């Protein structure tokens, strides 16, 4: 006697038909020589011609240089936040109500994911590259790029990786893909490691990999992708914007940046009233996101010659922003939970401290500090008038240069140019973990001080240009101003050279090509020396230029000629008109 249809068990095919394999769905009741019920229902030809292969990742034939148990996606070395730490949870934190003698809540590392056996299921990231290479890239991102591009909350990200959240969350999968793309773009020296990690698997070139990553990302987007937005959807184009810029594809970078800016405005990253209802983690992420996109805004404001790029803020909107309210909390991610923030007692700076100092520098380049809602605030009026009055514009730039000069006077000793006091480390910290910490804080110092010098140099360029338009070139006042500014330019060049000689190359590379271009901009300013060829100032300038040339030969890893400030697109309608004439 057979069971009634409602009670019959669904029979899955031992081998999926070609149609079901392409659609990545379960094959029902099919086997070679018959038709599955899905193909019958859809009136499709049911075939079994596609070759089959063993399921799951292949067995590893060699020992990885970094085991999965050692991978730390928390921005700190694994030994500092290991799950086995006394009284800690899975993110290594001492929980309220626990004592140092309490057992840990988990003995498994968040990165010790399942699925390493040959029979494990296929990973969602396999369309990008094998999972073990993805994990290695993510580890490098957290160790090298997170201090500069903090678009994730470390404990949350670790848990999401540990639970394979990307298998059912396409937005998180897109974020992983973008993080892999940007680490390949920003840190070229690691790409050989990725290519050699799995013998027999080819990643192609860095350019090929980033193109492939973006293609995989686009395949995840449906027609209603932008109907729901999130911080992750903002972070994805932000990372790809950087990745394409690093391989010299400026036009594609511009277009992706436009998507990033639109999402930032829709999320209201610049508007504190829009943060209502967000938990502490999301609030911290969005504040960091605001400053990341604000960096791009300042770049375009002070350097974009063609003015063809869309800007994140207009002058009127800029006046409404309260930078102090938008400053992220000066604590590590491990101290921030959805419902509370645990105060950190360590007197030494953390990674967020360095990030916030950079925010101060970028803000000082365009505006004075102050709360726009405070009566009697020192904030200046809208800068729209500066475009009509050159003298007012020059006065504004001069005030920005003055404020910027002293912005970093009171920073912690660990983050100063010379860094006399190293970051304190536990006696149990391994040499590898010490190297990671050294690289992270070295990258922060490099970014912070080179950006500080570069912005001051750019403002000097603007003042020189404005002075030439508003003052007679032969007037005594103009000549005195020229000498004073040149002395300041020389001082900046000397500071930068000393800084570059004191930073390890491994701390410079995470700053990528932006770092080299800032150094070049400072060096280019020395080519306009206003004194005679044999004047001591000209001789010193020539020496600085030679030194910068040698340094740039090591720093600039551009694979193509960078044409950021040139027109790199073709207006086909205009070209057709010219040919018609």
How would you characterize the overall build of this protein?
This protein is mostly helical. It folds into four domains: 13-52, CD2-Gal4; 110-267, no CATH class; 274-388, no CATH class; 397-581, no CATH class. The protein is built from 19 helices and no strands. Residues 1-12 and 56-120 have low confidence and may be disordered. Residues 77-123 are annotated as: Disordered. GO terms for molecular function: DNA binding; DNA-binding transcription factor activity, RNA polymerase II-specific; zinc ion binding. Residues 16-48 form the Zn(2)-C6 fungal-type domain. This is Zn(2)-C6 fungal-type domain-containing protein. Residues 111-122 have a biased composition (Polar residues).
Key descriptive features of the protein:
single chain; 581 residues; mainly alpha; CD2-Gal4; 4 domains; 48% helix; 0% strand; globular; disordered N terminus; Zn2Cys6_DnaBD; metal-binding; DNA-binding transcription factor activity, RNA polymerase II-specific; Carb_Metab_Trans_Reg; DNA binding
């Amino acid at each position: 006697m057979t069971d009634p249809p409602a009670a019959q068990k669904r029979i899955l095919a031992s081998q999926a038909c070609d149609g079901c394999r392409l659609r990545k769905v379960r094959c029902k009741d099919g086997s070679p020589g018959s038709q599955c019920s899905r193909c019958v229902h859809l009136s499709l030809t049911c075939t079994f011609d596609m070759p089959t292969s063993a399921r799951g990742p292949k067995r590893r034939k060699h020992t990885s240089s970094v085991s999965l148990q050692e991978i730390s996606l928390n921005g700190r070395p694994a030994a500092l936040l290991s799950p086995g730490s006394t009284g800690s949870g899975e993110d290594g934190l001492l929980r309220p109500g626990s004592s140092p003698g309490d057992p840990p809540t988990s003995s498994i590392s968040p990165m010790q994911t399942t699925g390493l056996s040959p029979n494990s299921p296929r990973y969602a990231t396999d369309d990008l590259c094998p999972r073990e290479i993805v994990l290695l890239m993510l580890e490098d991102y957290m160790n090298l790029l997170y201090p500069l591009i903090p678009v994730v909350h470390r404990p949350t990200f670790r848990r999401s990786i540990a639970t394979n959240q990307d298998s059912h969350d396409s937005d998180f999968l897109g974020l992983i893909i973008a993080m892999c793309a940007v680490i390949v773009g920003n840190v070229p020296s690691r790409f050989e490691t990725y290519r050699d990690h799995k013998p027999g698997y080819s990643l192609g070139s860095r350019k090929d990999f980033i193109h492939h990553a973006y293609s995989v990302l686009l395949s995840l987007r449906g027609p209603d992708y932008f109907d729901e937005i999130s911080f992750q959807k903002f972070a994805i184009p932000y990372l790809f914007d950087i990745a394409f810029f690093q391989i010299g594809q400026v036009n594609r970078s511009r277009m992706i940046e436009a998507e990033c800016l639109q999402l930032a405005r829709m999320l209201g990253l610049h508007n504190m009233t829009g943060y209502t209802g967000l938990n502490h983690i999301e609030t911290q992420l969005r504040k960091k996101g605001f400053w990341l996109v604000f960096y791009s805004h300042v770049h375009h404001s002070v350097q974009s010659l063609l003015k063809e790029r869309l800007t994140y803020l207009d002058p009127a909107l800029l006046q409404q922003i309260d930078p102090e309210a938008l400053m992220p909390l000066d604590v590590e991610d491990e101290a921030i939970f959805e419902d509370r923030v645990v105060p950190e007692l360590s007197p030494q700076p953390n990674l967020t401290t360095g990030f916030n100092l950079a925010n101060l520098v970028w803000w000082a380049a365009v505006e004075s500090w102050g709360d726009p809602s405070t009566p009697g605030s020192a904030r200046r009026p809208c800068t729209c008038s500066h475009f009509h009055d050159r003298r007012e514009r020059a006065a504004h730039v001069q005030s920005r240069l003055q404020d910027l000069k002293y912005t970093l006077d009171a920073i912690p000793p660990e983050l100063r140019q010379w860094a006399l006091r190293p970051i304190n480390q536990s006696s149990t910290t391994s040499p590898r973990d010490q190297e990671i910490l050294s690289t992270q804080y070295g990258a922060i110092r490099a970014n912070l001080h080179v950006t500080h010098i570069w912005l001051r140099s750019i403002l000097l360029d603007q003042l020189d240009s404005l002075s030439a338009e508003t003052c007679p070139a032969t007037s005594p006042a103009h000549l005195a101003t020229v000498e004073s500014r040149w002395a300041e330019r020389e001082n900046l060049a000397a500071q930068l050279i000393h800084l570059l000689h004191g930073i390890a190359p491994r701390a410079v590379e995470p700053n990528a090509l932006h770092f080299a271009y800032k150094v070049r901009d400072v060096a280019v300013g020395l080519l306009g020396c206003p004194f005679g060829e044999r004047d001591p100032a000209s001789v010193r300038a020539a020496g600085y230029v030679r030194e910068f040339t040698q340094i740039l030969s090591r720093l600039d890893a551009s694979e193509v000629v960078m044409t950021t400030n040139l027109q790199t697109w073709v207006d086909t309608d205009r070209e057709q008109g010219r040919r018609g004439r």
